[in-house]
Amino acid sequence: MSSFIDIPADSDFPLENIPFGVISTKDNAALRPATAIGDHVVDLKAIADAGLFAGPLLKAVAVSVFSQTSLNAFMRLGRPSWREARSTLQSLLSKGTASRLRDDAAFRAAAIVHKSTVINHMPAQIGDYTDFYSSKEHAFNVGVMFRGKDNALQPNWVHLPVGYHGRASSVVVSGTPIRRPNGLIQDFATKAIHYSTCKKFDYELETAFFVGTGNNLGERIDIADTEEHIFGMVLMNDWSARDIQAFEYVPLGPFLGKNFGTTISPWIVTMDALEPFRVAQPVQDPVPASYLASGPKDAYNLQLQCDLKPHGHDTSYTISKTNLKYMYWSMKQQLAHHSVNGCNMNAGDLLGSGTISGPDDTSLGSLLEASVNGKKEVVLSADGAVKRTFIEDGDSLKITGKCEAEVDGKKIRIGFGACEGTVVPAAQL
Amino acid sequence: MSSFIDIPADSDFPLENIPFGVISTKDNAALRPATAIGDHVVDLKAIADAGLFAGPLLKAVAVSVFSQTSLNAFMRLGRPSWREARSTLQSLLSKGTASRLRDDAAFRAAAIVHKSTVINHMPAQIGDYTDFYSSKEHAFNVGVMFRGKDNALQPNWVHLPVGYHGRASSVVVSGTPIRRPNGLIQDFATKAIHYSTCKKFDYELETAFFVGTGNNLGERIDIADTEEHIFGMVLMNDWSARDIQAFEYVPLGPFLGKNFGTTISPWIVTMDALEPFRVAQPVQDPVPASYLASGPKDAYNLQLQCDLKPHGHDTSYTISKTNLKYMYWSMKQQLAHHSVNGCNMNAGDLLGSGTISGPDDTSLGSLLEASVNGKKEVVLSADGAVKRTFIEDGDSLKITGKCEAEVDGKKIRIGFGACEGTVVPAAQL
Ligand SMILES: [Ca+2]
Ligand SMILES: [Ca+2]
Ligand SMILES: [Mg+2]
Ligand SMILES: [Mg+2]
Ligand code: NI
């Protein structure tokens, strides 16, 4: 496949991707659905209004769903419609296929804009946000720190994908500044409790998926059907205040240590675009209960990276390189588990992976792990001058991700764009 | 105050109440805002369309906010507007004040309908739902069961109102059947883990409040301002699967043990209606941090009751009589705490009290406590024939609540209507 749009070789958004997002532009403040192609962005409202979603599923509904300010209505249509939209756009953007988009210069200039004029918005209205804890390496590393090596994993961990409800309102799109939180913190040595600014500001490198179609309350999504319900994936930074979290979280879980902000990348990459990158997930021992039964290739070879740009610097330093394929529990298992009790899932629900840590020191997905809860400085610059235990005000973090594989002799690269945020100083106490 | 509508002496909805909800009627399926008065319901869309919200704040916006299918738009207007709506309705419904509602029989018949023709719906679209754990008696009782008397309360408990994020999608209105959930359960004796139907199905007697106006991400709601942000209260049953919860909840908190369903009463009683029933909250020792500083009367003398109607029976048995005034942490403190880290609250957010247990055996807000986690049968009928450790299929639970006080020599009673649900058998495993 090649496009009449010039696509840089290292682009996250080749014709094989076709992610979905919501944009406005400098000259049009209206929020509308869009896709990304190379360094350009295609306005899906313009495509729909021109009648170019002409396939059997979308023909009658495209104008309506692509006139919304979020993708929720499109998500509710179901996977056959998502597939039709993607293949229609691939065809419209192809070099070799005649289309109004390719051949009508005035229409093309209105419907396709350069990314420099685009403002990304939240792609969906999130009804509920859940975060899992599905990396065995991460759960083990954290467990060792707080309970020692022998009790690192709780007894439930290998039997089900542990997760908790997060705060939907504070999930924000890449680029939104994140304010350092205040809260109650216990001094480790004296045990004194202070109302204070967070001193252990951390990130968590995660991915997340959006539910496309849901289930009714009291029903469940069978694991065999889960792939029809998952719309696509984004990168996620689950910013975490470790000192606030440490004092508050027993016995009901993380709350203010997490809900001050969670950043996602703006473009939702569909599961169809990620299909060539499926790999076997780690062997699960013990074998999970029947409702969590896996398929042969339920993991994804998605390379992930987090870069930190220190305040006052122009250089970024890579602080983690990890991979989604390490995850013990799959997205299918997370969704089947979430609904096994009849919990109703809806279009736009966001389900986070949990921090993705790999097997070694360079693949840890949080500074909590890399600095051993602040005990060890993480050296960033080669000269040793720039180092961190936790994140400082003015630091920027950027998570990126890409899948690479050879498909039919051609090297394919699918990326996610950036999940980026800069930490701003706390409000007055 | 007296109304031209005949109001039974024991009604939850005298002219002093004026709660807000969302209804449809047998002859009009459109969802619209309403208030309750005695055994009748007033259609607020009809009142707005007739131009009767003529006060300075609502005049221009009443048609718009009362044409919505939820109260969220009305909530966003702020407390002065909520007050104006309530006093306008009190005046329109007064016996002694001329109004089109009182004097135009045809209009009255269209705008005021008997409750028997009304279907109640969710009053607001809940963005995020949080449940607290603010009854010291409940936290202590549960703590003793799981950690013994000396470690019953966690160290954080007296310093902050412990809470966690719940699932917004499965909050349902009174009358919705609740399906018994399935999930992974660990056998206490053998430690074996089974995919099974819940065997310890419980309720939690709670109240909850709706946020009216919120705050921006990164800002906080000062405790001195919290009363302007709280729209009103409902009764809540936080159905709980104790066996699923017990296995899953470490270390990230309750998840599938809770998120299969939460029932609320349909009418939101405003804080203005509850003002005469304010009382001092329990003494807090240690004194909380400055951002949690209390006023002199931040508790409410709200009498609460839960009745169980066993399957196959026509009689209900009271299983709990408790009072909101026992709560250690106030709603003001819960809201100030929730936002102290900059977490953004929105109109329609629901914040639960946590199980409300009182000081003795008759005031326990859950069967977990009353049956000591299933070890002791709770006798319901005088002859001892009807008893429960947990809730059985077909059982109905009904939570009710009322405030009573003498105001200017007149006995005032403000009620909440019912928060009711019947348990239906689990789905096939
Ligand atoms: Ca996380
Ligand atoms: Ca509860
Ligand atoms: Mg977060
Ligand atoms: Mg519940
Ligand atoms: Ni261009």
Structure characterization notes:
The structure is a homodimer of 429-residue chains. Chain A has 429 residues and is α+β, with helices and mostly antiparallel strands. Chain A has 2 domains: 21-121, Roll (SH3 type barrels), CATH 2.30.30; 129-424, Fumarylacetoacetase-like, C-terminal domain (Fumarylacetoacetate hydrolase, domain 2). Chain A is built from 12 helices and 27 strands. The first copy, chain A, has helices spanning 44-49, 62-65, 72-76, 79-92, 100-103, 105-111, 136-147, 226-229, 242-248, 271-274, 331-339, 367-370, and strands spanning 21-25, 28-37, 40-43, 112-114, 118-121, 129-132, 163-165, 171-173, 178-179, 182-186, 193-197, 201-202, 205-211, 230-237, 240-241, 262-264, 269-270, 278-279, 299-300, 303-309, 317-323, 350-352, 378-379, 387-388, 396-407, 410-415, 419-424. In chain A, the strands form 7 sheets. In chain A, strands 6, 7, 8, 13, 14, 16, 17 and 22 form an 8-stranded mixed sheet that branches. Chain A is globular. The model of chain A has no long low-confidence stretch (mean pLDDT 97). At the A-B interface, strand 7, strand 10, strand 11 and helix 9 of A face strand 7, strand 10 and helix 9 of B. Chains A, B: The active site is at 138 (proton acceptor). Chains A, B: Pathway: Amino-acid degradation; L-phenylalanine degradation; acetoacetate and fumarate from L-phenylalanine: step 6/6.
